[in-house]
Amino acid sequence: EAQVTQNPRYLITVTGKKLTVTCSQNMNHEYMSWYRQDPGLGLRQIYYSMNVEVTDKGDVPEGYKVSRKEKRNFPLILESPSPNQTSLYFCASSQRMTGADTQYFGPGTRLTVL
Amino acid sequence: DQQVKQNSPSLSVQEGRISILNCDYTNSMFDYFLWYKKYPAEGPTFLISISSIKDKNEDGRFTVFLNKSAKHLSLHIVPSQPGDSAVYFCAASASGTYKYIFGTGTRLKVLA
């Protein structure tokens, strides 16, 4: 089954404790992206990757890091989480990044930073 | 500055009637527009899209209209069904930018 998986689905942590949210896709997609969803703000793009070892900032990259060492994986790293990073996070992938390419989203990771 | 705006946070429609969800954008460089549907506890799923060279795209009960001069697009659902109850996001992209800009979403409730 073609899918995007994220782990963990739920996470409660404390300020400053480094964490990683994993994302994996089994569709051999080139393009992957991370979003956060917040009430009243919709989905905002954090980082994206056009292919292995090629990443770039989205609209809200502060406080996040990413890496793309393999085509299928695109982890999101919070080196020192803060309460304003409490949010619902989605990973997505598509074959390429053209407007015509549909993004497939993972189920989401709900993160709470105390 | 919100480049893609969905000014109606919520919408209620009777089953069988038409649902119209609206989206406005400010960036004239956007050349592709998409609608995604999101159910609770799930990720968004693609619904329908339209290129800026078209003004209408239809897929079954779903039709998207694009008015470039007004920088406005709308999603029509006819007839609306209770299973259509979800949050709908519009999104836009500009060729060569590798970015998607999403709106804030509209929660549609279809009443049986």
What can you tell me about this protein's structure?
The complex is a heterodimer of chains A (114) and B (112). Chain A is built from no helices and 11 strands. Chain A is mainly β. In chain A, strands 2, 4, 5, 6, 9, 10 and 11 form a 7-stranded mixed beta sheet that branches. In chain A, strands 1-3-8-7 form a 4-stranded antiparallel beta sheet, with no helix packed on it. The model of chain A has no long low-confidence stretch (mean pLDDT 94). The radius of gyration of chain B is 13 Å and the shape is globular. In chain B, the strands form 2 sheets. In chain B, strands 2, 4, 5, 9, 10 and 11 form a 6-stranded mixed beta sheet that branches. Chain B has a 5-stranded antiparallel beta sheet with strand order 1-3-8-7-6, with no helix packed on it. Helix content of chain B is 0%, strand content 54%. The interface between A and B is medium-sized, with 28 and 26 residues.
TL;DR?
Chain A is mostly beta strands and 114 residues long.
